[in-house]
Amino acid sequence: MQTKFIFFSGKGGVGKTSMACTTAVHWADAGKRTLIVTTDPAANLSDVFEQEIGHNITPISGVDNLFAMEIDPDISTKEYKERLLAPMRDLFDDEMLKIAEEQLSGPCTEEMASFDKFIDFMEDGTYEVIIFDTAPTGHTIRLLELPVDWSKHIEESSKGSGQTCMGPVTLIQENKKKFDDAIAKLRDTTQTEFIFVMQPEQTSLDETVRALQELGKLGIPTSSLIMNGLIPVAETGNAFFKQRYDMQQTYMAKARQIFSNMRMKTMELFDTELKGIDMFRKCGDRLFAGNDTHE
After folding, report:
1. What SS3 class is residue 23?
2. Which one, of 285, 280, 289, lies nearest residue 68 by Cα?
3. In sequence order, which residues have a C-beta less than 8 Å from that of residue 118 and are 6 or more positions away?
4. Which of 26, 92, 219, 272 is the most exposed place for a label (fewest CB within 10 A)?
5. Residue 12 burial by CB count (10 A; 0-12/13-18/19+): exposed, middle or buried?
6. What is the C-alpha separation between 206 and 213, in angstroms, rounded?
7. Where do the H-state alpha helices sit in 163-236?
């Protein structure tokens, strides 16, 4: 079974989590064993699914086949350091272990630990669909740059000092293959889908253009876009909403022109908060109703 990875990215506040959760519920309801993981330090999956989740894989109440997890950077760092140190405990004395632990306390250890946890899921064959609800764009681009940067860093250090900012090469050498495998999966469109969520406004449009260019430099193609938060045409009888609607249509036209080679779905603004299983199913009925504009 080949797992499908779906990444949701975009500017802060555009509705990434809502679209990611909607997609997760859709695939779980379709019978796919599905996991949604958030890499956002300000994660709120617990709030939108209305149940406690945290740093453990948790079944979602009311949806068969759906599980969720919020990656905690502090816990990930402890787990990561322990995974490296554990094999050494039977081989070295306390003094050597202390030195090794100090070497793993560099400035990039936490960054690496979070990513290490993140790509663990890309090696997990337990799920048919894994959805990544990512932090706002800049953080996500950095997250995806890490395997490329670290793979090079480890290779260069192994030929030089043998020391990296994450500790000795000897402790992390086997991670290079893990990073290289992750890079290959991120670039493989048969396994990985990148979906950008945006709002019909200039700042969101500009950030999406920049992010797609940055991903392109990493060799990672973007699959599709979701234009979220559109005012329904039925509400344009009100002058205020008509003016907002007209503005949104202008940016929709720009987006269709700029991203003419990409699939684009649209999602209207709801009159209630988008949270809870019933709302995600309601949203999913519209999102997956075949409203792609560029298929």
Report:
1. helix
2. 280
3. 37, 39, 71, 132, 143
4. 272
5. middle
6. 11
7. 169-172, 175-187, 202-217
Q: CA-to-CA distance for 199 and 197, rounded, in angstroms?
A: 7
- Written as six digits, the tokens of 217 are 């430099």
Whether 132 and 119 have beta carbons less than 8 Å apart is answered as: no
Q: Tell me the three state secondary structure of residue 264.
A: strand
Residue with tokens 């950077």: 73
The Cα angle at residue 79 between residues 75 and 84, in degrees rounded to 5: 150
3-state SS, one letter per residue, for 65-119: CEEEEECCHHHHHHHHHHHHHHHHCCCCCHHHHHHHHHHCCCCCHHHHHHHHHHH
Q: Is residue 68 within 8 Å of 37, Cβ to Cβ?
A: yes
Helix axes 137-158, 202-217, angle to 10 degrees: 20
Our CA dihedral for 181, 186, 191, 194, rounded to 10 degrees, sits at 170
Residue with tokens 């990073």: 179
| Predicted confidence pLDDT, tens digits, the chain (295 residues) | 677 999 998 888 899 999 999 999 999 999 999 999 987 777 689 999 999 998 899 999 999 999 999 988 788 888 888 877 777 777 777 877 777 777 667 656 766 776 777 778 888 889 999 999 887 666 666 666 766 666 676 667 666 666 665 556 565 666 677 778 888 888 899 999 999 999 999 999 999 999 888 888 888 888 899 999 999 999 999 999 999 999 999 999 999 999 998 999 999 999 999 999 999 999 999 999 864 443 3
